[in-house]
Amino acid sequence: MNVLAPDAALEGRQSAAPGEDRAKTFRNALIVAVAYYVGAEIAFLIGTLTDKIFAPFWPPNVVLFCALLLSPPRQWWIYILAAFPAHVLAELQVGMPATQLLVAFATNCSVAVINALLLQRLQFDPPWFGSIRKATTYVFITAFVSPALCAFGGAFVQILGGGSIENYGVYWARWYASNALGSLTLSPIALICIERMGSFSFTPTLRRVEAILVAAVLAVTCLFAFKEDTSIASGYVPALLYLPLPIIVWAAVRFGAAGASGVIMVISLALIWRTLNGHNLFDVGNAEANVFAMQLFLIGLSCPVLLLGAAIEETRRAETVTREREERISFAAAHSSVGLWQYDLAAGSFWATDYCRTLFGLPSGVPLDLDRLLNRIHPNDFPMAHAAFQSAIARPTPLEIEFRVQGRDRGYHWVSARAQPIFGDDGNPTAMTGAFADATSRKMAEAEADMQRHEIAHLMRVSMLGELSGGLAHELTQPLTAILSNAQAGKILLAGDEKNLVEIGNIFDDIITEDNRAGEVIHRLRGLMKKGEIKYEVVDLNELIASTLRLLHSELIGRRIAIKDEKAADLPPAHGDPIQLQQVLLNLFVNAMDAMDGVAPSRRIITVSTRVTEEGGIDVRISDCGMGLPKSHEQSVFQPFFTTKKRGLGLGLPICASIMKLHGGTLSLQNNVSEGATAIFRLPPPGP
Amino acid sequence: MREAGFTTFLVDDDPAVLRSITRLLNAAGYKTKSFSSPQEFLSSHDPAVPGCAIIDLVMSELDGLHLQQALIETGSDRPIIFLTGRGDISTSVKAMKAGAVDFLTKPVQREALFSAVKRAANVDAALRQRRNESKSIGDRISTLTHREREVLEYVIAGRLNKQIAASLGTVEKTVKVHRGRMMAKLGVRTVADLVRLAEKVGIAPAHSMVG
């Protein structure tokens, strides 16, 4: 049976060369003809051996059906044409008259054509019997619809052979049963064998040994069960019929559709063999009736077994697909440095992809569970992470946290975690699912960007101080002048005849005061010059503004700019890095000063105000009376390298904006209604 | 070469610097008067008091150069020493052109300060002497009669008696009398002395009416 090469037979498949294609078709047609003839001979042989009028099934129809199903409809005529001489040859041997022969061939062809046509239409394609839908379609069409239809014609074959027209119903039933049985017992295993022929090999595997063993045990059991033994009371027959059942189920469960169709064939062969040898299990009267009973038994048995095999096959394929998909996802996740996990709340079971081991530095032997993973978290991050995972069950939005994890080598690396509850039908969380990802490289990039930003901020600070150096030097010169003059006066006084000790004491007092004053200037400058870590502390913004203005004192005087102080008296303390905040203030003041270069000295006024916002934050405004922002550039001022100054780098405001962002605050710039611009610097209320 | 009552007027809006410079000058025996506000200094300024001003260049109310200008506008020629934290060249040139005695950079060394004050004192003394001299010449000139004054202007213009007589419509003899009286009143013996004296008080020689 397994002679049709599937590659040549599948519809729509185009071979490389048309000549080769034709040769293959010719070869297949020849095989069909031979198989058809052999099938007919086997049927006649069975019929002769049993001395009965007809065989339980008619193999030539199975051959033709398989050939048509496996080939495109445009080639069907070739196989029908090839089968015809075989049919004529076989039937003439048994002395069938021409009319009967032709009607028989016509009905044989029609059942094969209807079967193949409907099945191809209904997408019955390999893998054959791979799903319940396919198996049901197959059984419904080939075991019921088309044989039932064609039997109306087939029944005439016997009438033409001399049968009485009154027996039309019986002939119809016989013809139907033999065709349906052939489709159920021979076609499935034939189709599966043809399908798997390409990948078949003779290497004995444990599975093949098991298959052969199951077939052998089944055959023996069947031969035993189907034996009409006089030592066993005839009442046991139904019970004996159930004997092969465990093996049938075993084969179907273990080998799916192939197992199911295989056992059907074995049972059929065993039953026929027994029947041929005179063991009539179904002795219901005459020979025809006995065969018909056997046919019904086999049809009734085959249908559920075939469906069972298909169901098993479908489940197994679904499992394979699921497993492959899971493997693919795990593979993809691992390759993108992501580990997936799920925690079942009710069962307390934890599942995670293998990459989680790598992420959490666990050796491959250790079983994965949530506690083991959490225990790898850095002790400082553990309480936060633990609390976050606990709270994630109740969160409607996905949790996203980052923590450090002990790697397999002593160091720690960063892991970002996402967690999200899965809710059951009752709205209660049933599981937690999520992903772990290696965040070390991102964290490092962030740290590097932070460092660079910090570095640029420092450079800007230093360059700004450079621009202000004249005024800053003057801030130092004043106390130094006072100290020097005081000391020189003291020296002169000491050299004189009458030493005014009170005055000398005053001189020392002044020297100390002025020295401290110079010290303070240097202290402020050093704070701005140094490149320290960002340190958040409690900051009095009013004091910070005053200190900044003290630094700018000489510069303001030199540029003849007056400061209008509108600071709120009861300003709450803010939270931030005083150096960075002072840099922002300094930058805004310098901008305000620069903006008023072209303004008459009497109108050079900078107004600085502080107030508490409605949200409890702090709002600092620095207004100038300068030319204001160019109309089209109100937003551009925060773009890097945008500048309106001749010698500006265009980094001052972007850096200030990034410092404010770091503090959770904002920085904005707007033109005043009358003249000049106002910078608004806003800090959020201190966090908890 | 300090006159009695010579005072240094200090103007600086930084009280600590003001106090320390005052102290230094006091210790060196100078009489000082200090002002933390340039306006206060201007309004109480008495040019009759001999002395010099030491002024901070950078002040919030009125900067040093503007104060110098304001002082000149009141007709005072009091010598000024500037003190500055940053000595840029253009400012110092401006200050010196407007008659500043010196331009000192803070912190100032006492030798530099004292020598500048000394120079300022000399300038002040010279200015005062010149002012006194021209005042006495003016007094003497005011005793001349109208005709004597006319003769004076012709004499310093280098005219001969005969020419002067022709110009004034009189005789040479009369001119000679006027000329002798005029020279006696002014206390000069030669024409050269007369010319120098007239120059000091700014009397211009008469323009010749005839060739």
Content of β-strand of chain B = 5-15%
Helix content of chain B: 40-55%
**Nearest-integer average pLDDT of chain B:** 86
What is the oligomer described by this structure? heterodimer
Shape of chain B: elongated
Q: Which structural class do you get from the secondary structure elements of chain A?
A: alpha+beta
- The total count of strands of chain A amounts to 12
- Which chain pair has the greatest contact? A-B, 31 and 23 residues
Rg over C-alpha atoms of chain A, rounded to the nearest angstrom:
49 Å
Structure description:
The complex is a heterodimer of chains A (688) and B (211). In chain A, strands 2-1-5-4-3 form a 5-stranded antiparallel beta sheet, sandwiched between helices. A 5-stranded mixed beta sheet of chain A has the order 7-9-10-12-11. A two-stranded antiparallel sheet of chain A has the order 6-8. The radius of gyration of chain A is 49 Å and the shape is rod-shaped. Chain A has 21 helices and 12 strands. Chain A is α+β, with helices and mostly antiparallel strands. In chain A, 59% of the residues lie in helices and 11% in strands. Chain A has helices at 6-9, 18-50, 59-69, 76-93, 98-121, 132-160, 168-185, 187-197, 206-225, 237-241, 245-276, 287-335, 355-360, 370-374, 382-392, 440-467, 469-495, 501-529, 541-558, 578-595, 652-662; strands at residues 338-344, 350-352, 399-406, 412-423, 429-438, 537-539, 562-566, 574-576, 605-612, 618-623, 666-671, 677-683. Chain A has 3 domains: 6-318, no CATH class; 336-438, Beta-Lactamase, CATH 3.30.450; 449-683, Histidine kinase-like ATPase, C-terminal domain (Heat Shock Protein 90, 2-Layer Sandwich), CATH 3.30.565. Chain B is an alpha/beta fold and 211 residues long. Chain B folds into 2 domains: 7-133, Response regulator (Rossmann fold, 3-Layer(aba) Sandwich), CATH 3.40.50.2300; 143-201, Winged helix-like DNA-binding domain superfamily/Winged helix DNA-binding domain (Arc Repressor Mutant, subunit A), CATH 1.10.10.10. Chain B is built from 9 helices and 5 strands. Chain B has a 5-stranded parallel beta sheet with strand order 2-1-3-4-5, with helices on both faces. The N and C termini of chain B lie far apart (50 Å). Classes of the chains: A alpha+beta (688), B alpha/beta (211). The interface between A and B is medium-sized, with 31 and 23 residues.
